[in-house]
Amino acid sequence: MQLKLKKNLYSIDKNLLVKAGEAINDTVLDRAVEKARKIYLVKLKNTTILKDIKKAFLDERYAIIFSSKNAKQRILSVLGGISIPKTILAELKNLKINFPYTYLHIIMIAPLAMRVALHKDVRGKFSLKRIGELCLAHDIGKSRISKRIINKKTPLTAKEYRILRMHPLIGHVLLHYYYGKEHSKYDFVSYEHHERLDGSGYPRRIKKMSLYSQLIAIIDIFDALTSQRPYRSGTYSFRGAIDLLIDEAKKGRLNKRFVYSLIAFARHKQPILKGMKVSKFSRDLPPEWNAYGKIARK
Ligand SMILES: [Fe+2]
Ligand SMILES: [Fe+2]
Fold this sequence. Notes:
Layout: E1 9-10, E2 16-18, H1 26-37, E3 41-43, H2 48-56, H3 69-81, E4 83-85, H4 86-98, H5 100-117, H6 128-137, H7 147-150, E5 156-157, H8 158-164, H9 167-179, H10 188-192, H11 211-226, H12 238-250, H13 256-263, E6 295-296
Parallel strand pairs: 5-6
Antiparallel strand pairs: 1-2, 3-4
């Protein structure tokens, strides 16, 4: 018996893999896999992502961090020069439609992390281009988590948490596939951004991770706290988010130096990190209602 497809088969970036009516055999399947794996690169400056980032810059919550016009220009120019596979672009477009919060978060942690990496005490440790590429792929695994879980307003059940916490692994697998032989350059932050230096993170509870993952993990938390989320009554203020990050750094979970480089943006003149004083007391209250971290019985 010969198997034939009723409809055309496409890859996520709309690349025709197998035509309708074509008989399916090993050769056709091998060719389809080969086509799906081929990497077509797209420059970010030719996509709507850069426009969306520029639009998001107008949001008041980013004002402190992007107060320097020069730094902003430099970041935009680096971002514009980044090339990403068409498949990742398609994933991002899909996220924009189905998970707008996640999309905005993914595209904005790229310039935020780049800005912190430009702090004079951190500069030189990172390539801005690499930060951009890694950030744009870090939460791609969320695209495979059910909308019901991502958009849930009430506490998640233990099972739903387990599913949500699979997104770093799913992202790792997707990136491995999309980047083919080059995967190891791009898939580690997706896998590591929820790990913590004391081993309390997930999915592998590792204590050692790349500097890129350590920096991006901090920006990831900061942006998640200061943006709208379905499961919270409001957003954390800049100071409220910083309080939480300082606390996490004190517990040995986050890289203190990178947390301090972020705090430096709250000061008029960016201080050097050595000897920088940070108040021991929390100055701002978190939103009144927050279902995050709470576990529902069923
Ligand atoms: Fe994540
Ligand atoms: Fe994230």
